[in-house]
Amino acid sequence: MTQRDKEKQKLIARIKRIRGQVDSIERLLTADDDCADILMLLANIRGGINGLMAEVLEDHIRHHLGEGSPELTAELSEDLIDLVRAYLK
């Protein structure tokens, strides 16, 4: 399995965790459960989505923007990735 395939599998695992959390929210809402539990799960999902978005953007910057643009140096790519990660926190 290539490094790229391993990265893809990690992203898919993240999506499955997020899907499970969304399913849990549906169950909690159906059961008329505590709002605090629902809010906590919603916050977890938001964090998971932000993390997933950061990973996909990082991959895009490294593999698509960086390789095709002589102006986008490795250092500038890393600065851009740091900026994106800071924004998504």
Automatic annotation (TrEMBL):
Pfam families: Trns_repr_metal. This is Metal/formaldehyde-sensitive transcriptional repressor. GO terms for molecular function: DNA binding; metal ion binding. Belongs to the FrmR/RcnR family. Signal peptide: none annotated. It comes from Acidobacterium capsulatum (strain ATCC 51196 / DSM 11244 / BCRC 80197 / JCM 7670 / NBRC 15755 / NCIMB 13165 / 161). GO terms for biological process: negative regulation of DNA-templated transcription. It comes from the Bacteria.
